[in-house]
Amino acid sequence: MFCFQAKTATVKEALSKWEEKTKEKASEAKEIKLYSQIPPIEKMDASLATLSCCEKLSLSTNCIEKITNLNGLKNLKILSLSRNNIKTLTGLEAVGDTLVELWISYNLIDKLKGVGSMQKLKVLYMSNNLVKDWAEFVRLADLPCLLELVFVGNPLQEKQSTDGNWMDEASKRLPNLKKLDWIPIIKEPVDE
């Protein structure tokens, strides 16, 4: 997603519009949808700290470049940041103890540094990013609860799929996975 608009919105402005539209108080809501804002949101500003009850936050299809200001989201379980301009996973540490699902497809992520802070993460949708080598991919092994991963469209996945060994190699490196790119992983029983 590339942003060419001169004007952008703040999270504070988007929350105000959301409250007006839904007739709910953002500070008490469990689910907040701020996706596809016009004008788009460019920064995750400090007003996110007011969302202490929020369990599911959608900021997809905006112009966000950096993950910041998640400290106040003490109950956040699902975070959707797909279709933005995010380059790193830095900033997720603040929700590492609660986050169960991260939807971050269609961004510009090539390094997975910091992913290990999300110890409860079960679902990671990060298709169509820029991860190109196994050294980065294996950082996902630091996620003890990860069961479902969508990684299609990353250079690593595309190359390995062309070579015909993506599913085997990826599931070998992440032995706890139950689903990879929407396909259930069936493991052969091991004879002892």
Can you walk me through this structure?
The chain has 192 residues and is α/β, with parallel strands linked by helices. Helices cover 17% and strands 11% of the residues. It has four helices and eight strands; from the N terminus they run αβββββαβααββ. It has an eight-stranded mixed β-sheet with strand order 1-2-3-4-5-6-7-8, with helices on one face.
Poorly predicted ranges (pLDDT <50, ≥5 residues)?
Answer: none
Distance between the termini: 50 Å
SSE series: HEEEEEHEHHEE
Number of strands: 8
- Overall body shape: elongated
Work out the radius of gyration.
18 Å
Give the class from helix and strand content and strand pairing.
alpha/beta
How much of the polypeptide forms β-strand, as a percent range? 5-15%
What percent of the residues sit in helical stretches (DSSP H or I)?
10-25%
* Main beta sheet: 8 strands, mixed
Provide the spatial order of strands within the biggest beta sheet: 1-2-3-4-5-6-7-8
Mean pLDDT: 93
Continuous helix count: 4
Summarize this entry quickly.
With 192 residues, the chain is an alpha/beta fold.
Keywords:
192 residues; 4 helices; eight-stranded mixed β-sheet; single chain; alpha/beta; elongated; 11% strand
